[in-house]
Amino acid sequence: MSSAVTETEESARSSPLTPLKLVGLVCVFLALCLDVGAVMSPAWVTADDQYYLSLWESCWKPASTENWQCSSTLGSDWQVATLALLLGGGALVLMSFLVALVAVCIGTRRRFYAPVAFMLFTAVVLQACSLVLYPIKFIESINLRIYHEFNWGYGLAWGGTIFSFGGGILYCLNPKNYEEYY
């Protein structure tokens, strides 16, 4: 009887689905949600209710009128590059979420951990590059003479990048070395 208990305990310990991987899956899902929110956000840069800039359009309101005038931001190379890097990272986060979800559902989990972690770390690099490029090129190319700030859309993008990094770390951890977590 004691050997049956020991085998059951041993199979529970060697099970590849761990709380760390489930938390990693939640982190990847949160990163995906934050990335979608950041890409769709109308407010990456705002300036005193006279100017706002998103990844898709730039709008300003002349002082003499109440109407906003908008133009596409896809004509500028650095804004297209920012969008492409952010969308590329978001696509990798989506693929890693789908692979991790399939791995949880079909039960062959262990062999999918390394590809998921690799895709997440690649997404982090792409998104971090876009999030560093954006303020540098914004300040260099757009000359606003009023107070402006990077708004919640930019913050959501950083949040998605941070959750992607956390998910990548959790998928890198080896469950055999952390038996006390079970």
Structural notes for this entry:
This protein has 182 residues and is of the alpha+beta class. The chain is 64% helix and 9% strand. It has a five-stranded antiparallel β-sheet with strand order 4-3-2-1-5. The radius of gyration is 22 Å and the shape is elongated.
Residue share in β-strands = 5-15%
* Broad shape: elongated
- What is the arithmetic mean of pLDDT? 82
Largest sheet, spatial ordering of strands: 4-3-2-1-5
Helix count, DSSP H or I runs of 4 or more residues = 5
Structural class: alpha+beta
Termini gap = 23 Å
- Outline the biggest β-sheet: 5 strands, antiparallel
Question: What Rg, in angstroms, do the CA atoms define?
Answer: 22 Å
